[in-house]
Specification:
Length: 375
């Protein structure tokens, strides 16, 4: 093993070689030019991101600490504009009132929405990718286009079509009527799925579920997605699976065929090969899909705006739409900005947690050892 003194001697001998210093200066000079060129090429994008992303975030953070109502300059305190500190945040999570109740209702709705949409769209998109990647499938181009087409169609247009399809006299209820089922009032039924299931076995708002948690009773927290929210879930899963299908398809095409052939020679079934060979090899794309799904579902807005604006009875209300309504409808920009930052924090926590869960144990161990060695 080379000791520290020997390393110093070797470094000294290297620097003492003739011409070494000149080459080193020329190399550093060239690297300096490369760094300057890099900053020059990236400067336009840095300026654009700074003006239209970083600066608005800082401005919104300041607004969330004030009671600005849209009148005058939000950065000039005085008069009706006051600095309220964290009051807008405490109103959302710690202070009893209509603001906290409505915000927690939107959080509960979105929690069930995320809980259903992310797994469903991930599984469906992976299944579609496996289908169109099958060598025995004919007309692959047609099926890829058909599965991807809803993703590039306007979300407003698709939401409008779904409103007509799931109306009381729409095509869905007409189809259910043909098989003897009296279709529900999709956009007027505020009952949650868990409430319907518990009601079927005789459990209806028991005494133990009356305790309030964050401004809502346990019974309300356990409502599950409403019937109206289920329509939005179906819409979103159908329209987003195409995009994620392309990501999985690209990952599947990068899997070496030799690996699958070796698994087949070992007698692995299709399910075994998928579980122990294919999925581990496309794990980075799986993490990406789940991450993008979490971020997108917590920011859902378009479909909510078109399909009822939170109706019925706020069972389709989401934090993104509530922040918009609080700011631009009730002119409480400080409260609306605070809601946006709370949602941002929720997204960061959920994303960090799922990355910890989906990251392999060996990879986490390598990262830990690398950080320990750097210390």
């Amino acid at each position: 093993m080379t000791t520290s003194s020997e390393i110093a001697v070797l470094e000294g001998s290297e620097t003492a070689r003739p011409g070494r210093g000149g080459r080193g200066r020329r190399r550093s000079h060239l690297r300096g030019h490369e760094a300057a060129a890099g900053w020059l090429f990236t400067a336009p994008m840095i300026v654009i991101l700074g003006l239209f992303l970083a600066l608005p975030i800082v401005m919104a953070l300041w607004v969330s600490l004030t009671n600005w109502q849209g009148n005058g300059n939000p950065f000039h305190l005085g008069g009706d504009l006051q600095f309220v500190g964290l009051r807008n945040y405490t109103d959302l999570v710690a202070r009893d009132g209509l603001t906290r109740t409505t915000f927690m209702t939107s959080i509960g709705n979105t929690f069930y929405y995320v809980l259903l949409v992310v797994p469903l769209q991930t599984v469906l998109s992976l299944g579609l990718a496996l289908l169109v990647n099958n060598a025995r499938l004919r007309g692959k181009g047609f099926f890829r286009t058909a599965f991807y087409f809803p993703s590039v169609t306007s979300s407003i247009a698709i939401a409008t079509v779904f409103v007509f399809l799931f109306s009381n006299s729409g095509s869905v209820n007409a189809a259910l009527k043909l098989v003897g089922i009296s279709g529900p009032e999709w956009f007027n039924d505020s009952r949650g799925l868990l409430h319907l299931l518990l009601g079927a076995v005789g459990v209806d708002n028991p005494a133990w579920a009356q305790h309030a948690v964050l401004g809502r009773s346990l019974w309300d927290w356990l409502s599950g997605p409403s019937v109206a929210m289920c329509v939005i879930i179906i819409l979103v899963v159908w329209t987003t699976s195409g995009t994620f299908m392309l990501m999985f398809l690209a990952a599947l095409q990068d899997v070496p065929p030799e690996v699958e052939e070796a698994a087949a020679l070992d007698g692995a079934t299709s399910w075994t090969k998928l579980r122990y060979v294919t999925i581990p090899m496309i794990r980075p794309v799986l993490v990406l899909v789940v991450t993008l799904g979490l971020i997108g579902t917590w920011q859902v807005f378009d479909q909510i705006y078109v399909m009822g604006k939170g109706a019925p009875a706020n069972t389709t209300l989401t934090p993104a739409f509530l922040a918009y309504r609080q700011a631009f409808g009730n002119y409480k920009y400080g409260s609306g900005a605070a809601m946006a930052f709370v949602v941002f924090l929720i997204i960061v926590v959920f994303t960090w947690f799922q990355r910890r869960v989906l990251t392999e144990r060996d990879e986490r161990r390598r990262l830990f050892l690398r950080r320990r060695a750097q210390r």
